[in-house]
């Protein structure tokens, strides 16, 4: 790779030869048989430890160049002869491996065919007779340029061509012509280049998570770094992905060198050109490179491959954005910057910082960038990550509530969280947020049943848990527990016990309440309890369920969290780990344990503060705003004469002003509704309380149609449909069509269009009815609690309240909580039609205004909305 081998000249050098020390021309040519014998001696020297991997590659390069130079002189391949020998492949890059083919081109200046054949036979036959692997061709400059035009693989190979011997002007003509042609044609060829790489990845798989990785062709392998070099030659990217030296993997150069050394030892140990690292060779390779055992080797391979994978993603995206525009596309305005969150905007298909963002003064900016990426499906710009890595300060401990909320939004986005977390991790930012992550980063599993490294398994578990948040009453603890449940691995002790202690440390840093820190620690400590007991103990024995209930302290919330975590953990382990048999056993155990656990404490209304009571007794309308926890969080108290439809209009006014409700309490006093909302502005500063008071009065008078305006605002939202934006600018999503095609996903310049906004839930919405005994009821006789669990959307509380009011139900009080992107709302209702059918109709209409779930992912059980009667307070399926 030119840019990885400075001694061979920079990647931008059109000559391709670069400055190299002159080699003496021997008087007596070396026979090919001597070349083969010398190769064998070098390999023996390598086995004895006299030559390390880089040294062996360099000596092999020198040996073959020496032989080719002397043989070329013998055959008359000299300056001004009209012939030259050009090396491509490993020899062209100056990194020849022990059993790599010699990739050679005999270039001639349209010489007589008989003479060319004679020279070619004199060059090829000695190598064949000595059993030296050879990939050869005979070309004129126009022929070689034509081949490069028609074949992407040939073009990529010729970009690494290097003059060996003969007519250097002829070689320069080809090498310079290839590079100029590559730059000129890259706009039209870029989709084919991307498709070529994707085909290779499909065949060879992902190196970082493959049992026997293909170091050369797999995703994150050597070919990808060489592709980065080709994009650098096209002047579309610098190929470095803006990684800091202290980032995991330290950048593609270092990662490339590690994989190249491992591949060199693999050749030497296998005694043939093998690209896949087999388990039986791993210990020997690790020992030869002084890495350690096969697990240490697997960790190095994973780390290097993930660094290269991140780099190639950034390189392809940067190259796509740098493609020159043509035709009418030149006249189009530059892509606009669309605000997504405070200090975060979308520009040209990427997440970037707003112009007024100051990372050095905004510790929470990292998480806002990551959550915006997960919500929109847009990648984070490499320059943004680099800027955050350089300037963003550490979050103070405990974290402010805003930072925890952004983390929960990220974790609640399902598998859309994987790419942002990987980008943060490769640039060193994820380790700042979770210093404990370093112990599990790229840690290979000890059990073959696991598909992923430990750190990726944690992310996958959290992603699966994100699609199950509406099953539990504490979705925030579910995704946090999923993220850290195996954090104790790799520390030489029982990972459940070590992890429980780490969970206390992490929970306190996140700013959780003490009781929630304890619950999170108990989740980690007992995350294997239900699968272990269900598959190894007799469930018909009453002592089995009793032991589970006792171990969990008869905590109903902990039991439902562990049941859901067990499924997410199994789905993230590997194919076939979660199935009907295991699911039925765990569900049976959970049902039996639930019968032994008392019902949870029902939700109760909060007491009004003296200030709120004073506002209510003053009568009329009032909107009072005051700071809450965090620089971007505010408490809004709204007071108005109580009447039907009031809650919907109050919540709607907040949403229309770009205020996202994190929590709310809905109560009354003396004939006035007293509703308090904790809100976060989507962008900028909140509006004045007086303005919202006027809007509320106009909405009550019917001068403002709140729901219609909410629909319009949602349709104009800058947040695009997740997954609708092409991951590679310049290539239409999933089609590989050329830039400038008529595909609706791209514009005439080959750049992705921003899709029409449409919000999709990760988890299906649920409505749970709770009938309470009079003894523990916080409501009046005849009232019922309706709990809604769903993903959030613009104006959700206003929409749900409008449905409730349309059904003639009266909201006596309500408690609203937005935990990340998941809403858990409890309404105390006086129903107009308190029958089973009436409740079902109301629940169905409420669910209809919730975000629709995405298509079910493979392995998901597909649980839809459930309406539980009686005293059920758990999302765990109960039959």
TrEMBL record:
Describe regulators of its activity.
Uridylyltransferase (UTase) activity is inhibited by glutamine, while glutamine activates uridylyl-removing (UR) activity.
In this chain, the stretch annotated as Disordered covers 1-27, 720-750, 851-879
Q: What is known of its domains?
A: Has four distinct domains: an N-terminal nucleotidyltransferase (NT) domain responsible for UTase activity, a central HD domain that encodes UR activity, and two C-terminal ACT domains that seem to have a role in glutamine sensing.
Q: Which GO terms describe its molecular function?
A: [protein-PII] uridylyltransferase activity
State what protein this is by name: Bifunctional uridylyltransferase/uridylyl-removing enzyme
Keyword Magnesium tagged: yes
Q: Uridylyltransferase: where is this region?
A: 1-339
Question: Could you tell me the keywords of this UniProt record?
Answer: Hydrolase, Magnesium, Multifunctional enzyme, Nucleotidyltransferase, Repeat, Transferase
**What InterPro entries does the database record attribute to this sequence?**
ACT-like_dom_sf (IPR045865), ACT_dom (IPR002912), HD/PDEase_dom (IPR003607), HD_domain (IPR006674), NT_sf (IPR043519), PII_UdlTrfase/GS_AdlTrfase (IPR013546), UTase/UR (IPR010043)
* Domain ACT, residue spans: 635-711
Catalytic reaction list: [protein-PII]-uridylyl-L-tyrosine + H2O = [protein-PII]-L-tyrosine + UMP + H(+); [protein-PII]-L-tyrosine + UTP = [protein-PII]-uridylyl-L-tyrosine + diphosphate
| Record-linked PROSITE patterns | ACT (PS51671), HD (PS51831)
Q: Which family does it belong to?
A: Belongs to the GlnD family.
- Which residues does UniProt call coiled coil? none
